[in-house]
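Researcher: Quick test of sequence recovery. Tokens follow.
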């Protein structure tokens, strides 16, 4: 899944420093390559900061007015605007507004299609890398434009919560089409993952869901109509298109940015007298309660990207590092969760917090369905003797025992199953 060694550190903010303390090599026959520390790394230390090779905001997320820079995904609402929209309170006023880093005076539009960027640097970077191909110009509101038809086709197949975007694939195509060294970029993308045809099909079906798997061919035709180029003809074949989907499904890293979250972190760092700290913390707690009641869990500008070095990190159910986006843009920070010694593998988790607390069987099912491998991390090995039942089955069993002892109604177990989140 790793890129050529010379390219592995190329997207890091301090590539030489990263290369001096990290190395990519074979982890185990079943795991392929992994990322290893060559020097000791302390808990809480930033291991590296990396820019994605390509990224894109999710289409439904953008449609629902989560306003982000079209290049770096920086949230473009101020923290106060963001909190007003999410809480449904248009008169809400945030204390310490200086902790918001969004600067509206720096925003720039594409003069042709009015796509919004957080700065001239982002607008120029987008234009240089892919936007010449993808700029809709005066056709931005034309539903018959091939790119608009492609996006609409994807939205009709992939509803929230989103896990991918057809525009990530579109930008990959556009980047190769605009590149002077097309071979280099094709090689970079092609080496992100290697899967068999059957594995690719499993990943694609999981990504778009059983309901829409028969529509992949119509999506390929829309993709071809919008973006076909002879130099990438293989990507537009049935097998090539499936491979692109599998690449994104296996390697895509979710990105979440929020001006409100950055404001909260800024407020947390303020040195305040105890009464003022208590007052501010209470305000923030109540704000999040109001947002949860009004909006639910969808708080961030969301998208996904491909990160060369981060994609070298293997999974563990007890990770020693985690990814985050503290700069309110697409820059990925990998941070040590514990001390990591020289020679030790650096692992992240592919599961969310809830999934990591479930049974070994449930975790293995989620990893098998989404990533097609069996985990052999220390936690899984230590639980090898546990029953092969999922967390749902365990809880149903507990519920059944409780009902038998208390004479409870027969429908409780079924209701519990309906309320569980399926992995």
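Model:
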């Amino acid at each position: 899944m790793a890129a050529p060694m010379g390219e592995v550190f190329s997207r890091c903010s301090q590539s030489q420093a990263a290369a001096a303390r990290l190395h990519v090599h074979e982890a185990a026959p079943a795991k392929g390559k992994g990322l290893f520390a060559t020097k000791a790394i302390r808990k809480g230390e930033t291991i590296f900061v990396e820019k994605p090779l390509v990224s894109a905001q999710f289409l439904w997320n953008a449609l629902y007015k989560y306003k982000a820079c079209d290049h770096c995904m920086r949230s473009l609402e101020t923290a106060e605007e963001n909190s007003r929209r999410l809480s449904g309170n248009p008169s809400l006023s945030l204390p310490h507004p200086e902790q918001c880093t969004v600067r509206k005076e720096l925003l720039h539009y594409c003069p042709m299609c009015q796509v919004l960027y957080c700065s001239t640097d982002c607008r120029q970077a987008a234009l240089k890398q892919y936007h010449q191909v993808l700029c809709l110009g005066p056709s931005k509101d034309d539903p018959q434009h091939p790119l608009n038809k492609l996006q609409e086709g994807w939205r009709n197949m992939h509803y929230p919560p989103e896990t991918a975007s057809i525009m990530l694939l579109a930008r990959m195509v556009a980047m190769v089409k605009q590149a002077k060294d097309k071979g280099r970029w094709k090689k970079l993308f092609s080496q992100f993952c290697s899967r068999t045809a059957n594995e690719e099909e499993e990943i694609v079906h999981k990504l778009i869901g059983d309901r829409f798997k028969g529509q992949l061919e119509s999506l390929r035709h829309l993709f071809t109509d919008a973006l076909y180029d002879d130099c990438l003809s293989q990507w537009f074949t049935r097998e090539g298109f499936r491979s692109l989907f599998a690449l994104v499904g296996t390697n895509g890293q979710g990105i979440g940015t929020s001006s409100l979250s950055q404001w909260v972190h800024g407020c947390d760092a303020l040195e305040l007298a105890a009464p003022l700290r208590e007052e501010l913390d209470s305000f923030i707690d109540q704000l999040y309660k109001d947002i949860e009641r009004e909006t639910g869990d969808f708080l961030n500008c969301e998208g996904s990207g491909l990160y060369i070095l981060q994609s070298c990190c293997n999974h563990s159910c007890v990770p020693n590092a985690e990814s985050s986006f503290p700069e309110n843009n697409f820059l990925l920070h990998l941070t040590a969760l514990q001390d990591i010694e020289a020679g030790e593998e650096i692992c992240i988790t592919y599961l969310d917090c809830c999934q990591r607390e479930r049974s070994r069987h449930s975790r293995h099912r989620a990893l098998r369905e989404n990533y097609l491998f069996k985990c052999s991390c220390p936690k899984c090995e230590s639980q090898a003797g546990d029953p092969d039942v999922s967390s749902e089955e365990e809880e149903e069993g507990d519920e059944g025992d409780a009902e038998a002892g208390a004479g409870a109604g027969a429908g409780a177990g079924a209701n519990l199953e309906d309320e569980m989140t399926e992995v």
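The first helix runs from residue 15 to 21.
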